[in-house]
Amino acid sequence: MEKGLKKFLCDRTFMKAVLAAAIPLMLQQLISSSVNLVDNLMVGQLGDAALSSVAAVNRYYMIALFGTNGLAAAASVFIAQYYGAGEQEHMKQTFRTLLVIACVIMTGFTLAGLLLSSGILGFFTSDATVIADGVGYIRIVASSFVPTAITVSIYNAMRATGEMKIPLRCSVVAVATNTVLNYCLIFGSFGFPRLGIAGAAVATVIARLVELSLALLALYRTDFAFKTRLQDIFAIPQEIMTKVLAKAAPLMLNEVLWSSGMSMLFKFYSYRGSEVMSGYSIASTVGDIFFTLFAGMAAATTVFISQPLGSNELEKARRHGYQLLGFSVMLSCVFAVMMFASSFAVPLLYSEVSATAKSMAQNFLIIQSFMFWIYMATTQCYFTLRAGGDMKHTLIMDSCFMGCINIPIVAFVTYCTDFSYIWIYIIGQLTDMVKLTFAYHLVSKEKWVVNLTKDPTQQIE
What we know:
- By secondary structure, the chain is mostly helical.
- It contains 16 helices and no strands.
- It starts with 11 loop residues before the first helix and ends in a 17-residue tail after the last helix.
């Protein structure tokens, strides 16, 4: 076992292999984030209120999506390890579990979005205009939640077996559809009705249905080991259901709590006005282009840690864990420079948004760029723990940290001081330095070096 900094170093062959696994998902996320940026720009043409209302609805959607992603991530760990172990029937059973539970989760969020829309929007803001616009938006876009859950399940299962290109291709078509329809339906171009932000919602629903159709077609035509017949969808042994849920529950809870915490932070910032909401939304949308690195490293972690663990190559998985951490930090420095440069383009992109909101967005991005390597290192620790099924510690380092440290600190400086929005944001971000220290401590204990397909107590001492 290598000591010190050497264990974080890797050769060019390893780097190329990691990039080969990471780049397809990074490209998929980049395309999606770029389209979200275009959507954001289009909605931004309607003014601060419209942009804020869509941002508020998206915060609710992110809670639903992150909960589903938590389940999918946990199930993917099992699929990847079963794939490494060559246990095809267990892969099918895990995939069925993922599909059924994901649809149940998203159905709940869909019903809440339809029936409790005013209350959901009212949580984020008291601005009547923002709430009114957001209610119309969420009642349309909520119908895309269940199709998204199915698509997410299929994509995660594919990636767990090393298939990265099909999700990328499906996403390219979907985001292109979304962009074109957004332009047509928001502004009434090419003979389409001018629907404003309702048009953006309709475009999203159609694009999600197109994406699901393509994913199902690819699943039908390709012989994946996890593929199951529709009539067998509920044929899930109690043992598999229990095993997956035991690992998924902490991760799902973590994702929901973490995304809820992020929504709470969004609420704190919105306390300083709708312009702060707009600026935060702009910064988040632009920043997502660079946070695609996270998605890529998540895919690489599945391939380079989960699969070796499943084939019982524990030492190889352990070595890869530290090498991925070192390589991800190196890549994050490159992305941070690009993010910093992007902040100066914000005023040029959003012509109809207030100068104050644009200035705020620019400041948010600059701060994020300096913190980017800390975000990446912390997140890579999270991916590493998750790859070995150490879900309890992911819950502690992520949501528990946010609930016990990040949120109370930001709440205090928001409501109990007269600090400007920028100092509130800086103070909130600096808590991530403490989080990184704790996250690496958990990784260094190496309780994640476990073969879940065999004896769960088997690990490197």
